[in-house]
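Dear support,

We are seeing what looks like truncated structure output for some complexes. This example has four components. We would appreciate it if you could run it in full and send us the complete token output so we can diff it against ours.
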Amino acid sequence: MKDMPTKERILYAALDLFAKKGYDGVGVDLIAENAGLKGPSLYRHYKGKEDIFNSLIDLVAFHYEEGFGLKKKLEEFPDSMDELIENAMERIRFTMHDDIVRKTRRILAMEQFRSKRMAELATRYHVENLQQTYAGIFAGLMERGMLRKDDPELLALEFVSPVSLLIHMYDRQPEREEEILDKIGKHFEHFVKVYAKSHSGF
Amino acid sequence: MKDMPTKERILYAALDLFAKKGYDGVGVDLIAENAGLKGPSLYRHYKGKEDIFNSLIDLVAFHYEEGFGLKKKLEEFPDSMDELIENAMERIRFTMHDDIVRKTRRILAMEQFRSKRMAELATRYHVENLQQTYAGIFAGLMERGMLRKDDPELLALEFVSPVSLLIHMYDRQPEREEEILDKIGKHFEHFVKVYAKSHSGF
DNA sequence: TGACAATGAAAACGGTCGTTAGCTATAATA
DNA sequence: TATTATAGCTAACGACCGTTTTCATTGTCA
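Here is the complete output from our reference environment:
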């Protein structure tokens, strides 16, 4: 943290503070202090507070699209429903505990109405990306006869919605983590029971 | 609006403004102006800005628990799955378009991390109340052999999650209302197809 | 060495924040 | 009618807001 370039340090300070108190709840002096300099010096690196915010969103958007989001797990296609659930569970645990992802979600929740861009980002991350990812996987599983034939996008929505809702709940009430993980587990179990075909069934 | 008592008018002005720009984005002078008086005069009715906010939350919480929330539709038990869906669809359309409910949801989204109370309220409204309501209905429908026997709470979560998620999406992007209502419709159709037993099946 | 760009800090800007004090008009109460 | 509580106003408070100006320090390159 100490050895990062200043411009980047500012963004991480902003991420932390905006996630705690929201955009309007944080002054530039406080951001500066958390980045190890004085308020006015911020303007050597950014044009203003709004610019800091936008750059921060650029950063987390890049992180999201590139990193943990899709590419890693999308290539290794699951060989069974159990493996699919295992993978999903792993991604959920990561998503819940990773510091940057968590702070990003909090900012997205608080600032989703600030601009059209924020609204679209929130929808993309909380709904569309997840749904698309699993729709693709489900389509493949259906072809291989491992999943009941149905509209893959619809099934993906059924699969993803309870998870998304419960993760929002975890963000608000992290003390209920155990209960929430249990509910997600039950949901997955149920999903397999209802939609999976036994692999030896031909 | 003009003929309301001042104390109430202030709350509705606050509801409107907080829903647009969030708690920290609105000054007391602006609230006062929208209620038809000057900033300092607010203090004849409330102890301060925080007090206005808390009173507003008290009001909408009361509205919610009492009014549209449960009592009306819970007593008239649905006689078929189709009727259940019809009722649910009607409630969704109301929830989406009612001004007060919509503004309440926006405030809940933006201020969910402001206090423990706000966090609990958000979870209650977006998850627990809906889930409980439908868990009760589903339990009844299962007893009458109209719904596949399963854990009613789990089934309620499956039923409610996509709706809740899509309504959040509507709040952010109301221009996508048509698409969203269509998805909710498809979800209900799917739910009936998967879980309902034909009534003449005995 | 001298010129120069980069990066910091201090001082100060006008504006807005939530809040308090003090005054005035009206309405209810004795 | 005299008194008192109510509810509005203006003025003003100190604190903080985002931002600009000005100056000092540094390291780079000619």
